[in-house]
Amino acid sequence: MSYMMIRAGLRSLSVPAKLQLNRMVRTGVDALRNNTLLASQAYINGKWVTAENKATFEVYDPATGDSLAAVPDMTSTETEEAIKAASCAQNGWAKTPLKERSAFLTKMKTLVDENSEMLAEIMTYESGKPIAESRGEVKYGNSFFEWFAEEAKRIRGDAMLHPVKRDSRYMIVRQPVGVSALITPWNFPLAMITRKAGAALAAGCCVVIKPAEDTPLTALAIAKIAEKAKLPAGVFNVVTCSRKNAESVGETLCLSSDVRKLSFTGSTPVGKHLYSLCGSTVKRISLELGGNAPFIVFDSADVDKAVQGAMGCKFRNTGQTCVCANRIFVQSGIYNSFCSKLAEKVKSLKYGHGMDPTNSLGPLINERAVVKVKEHVDDAISRGAALQAGGHLAPEFGPNFFQPTLVTDVAVDALVNREETFGPLAAVTKFETEDEVISMANSVKVGLAGYFYSNNAAQIFRVSEALEFGMIGVNEGVISSELAPFGGVKESGVGREGSMYGIEEYQELKYVNLNF
Ligand code: NAP
């Protein structure tokens, strides 16, 4: 079925069958009426502001299509104002003593804890994420404020004796890079901001954040947290804009010589574009881009553990995570047993509005995402795959819902084995040998996360070294942690976030040669 045919099919769906909503789920603007973290203005230089031309865009609940709020549709004009505000604040923030910077971050962490339920609610309404996962993201996201509050106090340099001169020393200090632009996606609307902003603020960098069109409300809620924490004006800025203005706002951030760093999380094509724009001012850059994770199950694996791992790894956030299993490769000896156990689990998944706590899957973010999943399913089946569960749109729930789906006997050259699906489609391909599966796993241009299940110690060492990915889960399907460096190789990006290394992305090393 062609892209156009799928789109036409989607448009003809009737919407009010649309919701088998649990009674506790409110809809539209009523949904967030009592949420005091809801903001409908952007945050620049410590002030809540509209776009100069008063333009706004609507933010929708992807489960219902209802409008939740309208926020400023900003352009390069307001982006330049935000850069100016951040530049003015930069010197003062860089000189703020480490313990004070740490205390600001600790305050933000405490405020996020105190307001966690409201943050989770905003996230579920604008991203569609099941409420339990939104609560999990608040905790995960906040772990970066906590972690970098601690790391702020540990910023240090080095001093060395001169190798040949008696009265000379070398000193190496770490200084903040400067104003940092942070462009974030919709799939983790809170954690992608805290993972970047936590490190930047700790290092002494002021930030200008551009959140995704689909999820600006979470970003603005964090700005409310920054305001409550009394961060100095200009240190933390959020510029909201619609997809139509994203390119010009992005260009303004990338081409400005006052912005010294870009940290971007999103798709590989957009990342490449921004990478090239940043060349004009030779900016520091971190790119967290797309993945296409292999999930490999060897004959020696504990099958039940592997099935459980695959479920969490594949269906978390309705399959819309950059590290989620995209290509499931299972060795022939346990293939049938793994597939039948996985099919049972997939069929038991309950989906619907994210605010109904009994649902473990929500809608996809938008119509384009639904079209892509459908294309991948149809392509796999047209190349001989067997449909074991799901496979279709779920119009009775709303236009952006897709059934949790399992296809087996998927051809190696199927679309799903070549491209990131970003949806609730588990696609299983059979393999025979270790060499064969490593070559299939490494055959893609990206290299973010990879997973394998094995109980053979020698194989565990061999395979974890052979896989060309930045992060590897061995007998583990969920690997994100504030303690570990997050990032990819090849076309999945540049740089690492979180961990003891994440702060270095926002620091310059300065070498001072001292003579006395
Ligand atoms: P996207 O289209 O690249 O968008 C990401 C961000 O970039 C959004 O804020 C978007 O704004 C903005 N943007 C789009 N075009 C732009 C342009 N020309 N100039 C400046 N900004 C621009 O990605 P997405 O579809 O939202 O997110 C999903 C992708 O992100 C997947 O590929 C996923 O793997 C990846 N991801 C990676 C990680 C990681 O850590 N490696 C984490 C999460 C997601 P609009 O929303 O307004 O278009």
Please outline the helices and strands.
Blueprint (H helix, E strand, L loop, with lengths): L2 H9 L30 E3 L2 E3 L6 E5 L6 E6 L3 H20 L2 H17 L1 H12 L3 H22 L5 E4 L6 E9 L3 E4 L7 H13 L3 E4 L5 H13 L7 E3 L4 H13 L5 E5 L2 H11 L5 E5 L4 E5 L5 H13 L9 E7 L3 H13 L19 H16 L3 E4 L15 E4 L6 H4 L6 E7 L2 H8 L4 E2 L1 E5 L3 H10 L4 E4 L14 E2 L2 E2 L12 E9 L1
Parallel strand pairs: 7-8, 7-10, 8-9, 10-11, 12-13, 12-18, 13-16, 15-16, 18-19
Antiparallel strand pairs: 1-2, 3-4, 5-6, 6-22, 11-21, 14-15, 17-20
Helix pairs in contact: 1-12, 2-8, 3-5, 4-5, 4-7, 5-6, 8-9, 10-11
This protein binds NADP nicotinamide-adenine-dinucleotide phosphate (NAP).
Walk me through this protein's architecture.
- The chain is α/β, with parallel strands linked by helices and 516 residues long.
- It is built from 15 helices and 22 strands.
- The protein has helices at residues 3-11, 76-95, 98-114, 116-127, 131-152, 191-203, 216-228, 243-255, 268-278, 303-315, 335-347, 367-382, 415-418, 434-441, 457-466; strands spanning 42-44, 47-49, 56-60, 67-72, 158-161, 168-176, 180-183, 207-210, 236-238, 261-265, 284-288, 293-297, 325-331, 386-389, 405-408, 425-431, 446-447, 449-453, 471-474, 489-490, 493-494, 507-515.
- Strand 3 and strand 4 (67-72) form a beta hairpin.
- The chain starts with a helix and ends with a strand.
- The relative contact order is 0.14.
- NADP nicotinamide-adenine-dinucleotide phosphate (NAP) is lined by residues 183-188, 210-214, 243, 246-247, 250, 265-267, 270, 273-274, 288-291, 322, 420, 448, 488, 493.
- NADP nicotinamide-adenine-dinucleotide phosphate binds next to helix 8 and helix 9.
